[in-house]
Amino acid sequence: MPASSALRRSLAVISALPLLTLAACGYGSQAKDDGAAKVAAGAKKIDGLDSVKIGYFGNLTHGTALVGRQQGIFQKSLGATEAEYATFNAGPSEIEALNSGSIDIGWIGPSPAINGYTKSDGKNLRIIGGSASGGVKLVVNPEKIKSLKDVKGKRIATPQHGNTQDVAFLNWATEQGWKVDAESGKGDVTVVRSDNKVTPDAFKSGSIDGAWVPEPTASKLVAEGGKVLLDEATLWPDKKFVITNIIVRQDFLKKYPKVVEAVLKGSVETNKWINANPDAAKEAANKQLEQDSGKALPAAVLDPAWKSIQFTDDPLASTLRTEAEHAVKAGLLEKPDLEGIYDLAPLNEVLKAEGEPTVDDAGLGAK
């Protein structure tokens, strides 16, 4: 069944945001992999493809991509098909890059994936795997906010209008019985849409009273004197919810299935290595962040941030369905038809080959 394309005007505007330019540092590192990721002698191209373009954010919640790139795991899995990378600051720009063919595969949050899928009537992308759970917190100024009830009447930042954390905060505020206009962010709580790069300065200056943000931004705010008032994981069954998916262009998946399988194999191997070597993985992620942005995270930020994220191959599909329901309830989305948003067959083939349990699409798989 085709997905509903009846998004509200707010999401249509978001999804139509232009691709960020290199100068803005939102659509960046478009170089072939280097350092540890040398193409092995005698390696062959997969599906005859010269290169595959992979996108991700400079967030620790995209740690699989950071570590897999830094350790050369993706390149090893891809043989002589070279891995090229691009970094993003926001989901809409990555969806635009995927739709335009500027990237082939990407790590991305659930809300942009839902928006991209529904806006294209289910034709442009598929979610093909999971990557991470958790790593999102409500951090506040403890002098202004001492309890959850004190959040009412305050100015709380989220990364972007309609993004995953924006939806989560609006849903939580609704559950408190507060009214907030999703479009303007005004109401019983004022929602301030603020890029994660500038949120710490806004917090330090006092222009916001707190923020519902992913790592490492949450731990940066704590380092500035903030207090974690709520960990979003506590709101979910088993404290698990999808924060990062792996997506692919449908035409790319159809034309280059073995390349997609190779990237997924690299992702599974990376997650296994991360979970077996958390300290080394943390340092590898930080090294890649430094190479991407020019600045590494201090230990006071890196250590608590990394501990709050779970890396998993499971896309936690049932929680994606719930997050879509939250967006509907918040007034950001007409009820979508998400049937077909997942194609987990390639991932499950990789998992079977690795002797790992397969994962479920919660009834939202491609037929």
Summed up:
By secondary structure, this protein is an alpha/beta fold. It is built from 14 helices and eleven strands.
Describe the structure.
The protein is α/β, with parallel strands linked by helices. 38% of the residues lie in helices and 17% in strands. The protein has helices at 9-15, 63-70, 73-78, 91-100, 110-119, 164-175, 199-205, 217-223, 250-255, 257-276, 278-293, 299-307, 317-330, 345-353; strands at residues 51-57, 82-88, 105-108, 125-134, 136-140, 155-158, 190-193, 210-214, 227-231, 242-249, 309-311. A 6-stranded mixed β-sheet has the order 2-1-3-10-4-11, sandwiched between helices. Helix 10 (257-276) packs across helix 14 (345-353). The longest helix is centred in the C-terminal third of the chain and has 20 residues, at 257-276. It is globular. Mean pLDDT is 89; it is low at 1-36.
Number of helices: 14
What's the shape? Answer: globular
Per DSSP E runs of 2 or more residues, the count of β-strands stands at: 11
Order of helices and strands: HEHHEHEHEEEHEHEHEEHHHHEHH
Low-confidence stretches: 1-36
| Rounded mean pLDDT score | 89
The amount of beta strand, in percent, is 15-25%
Could you describe the largest sheet, including whether it forms a barrel?
Answer: 6 strands, mixed
> What is the CA-CA span between the terminal residues?
9 Å
Give the oligomer, counting copies of the same chain as homo and different chains as hetero.
Answer: single chain
The helix content is 25-40%
What radius of gyration results from the CA coordinates? 19 Å
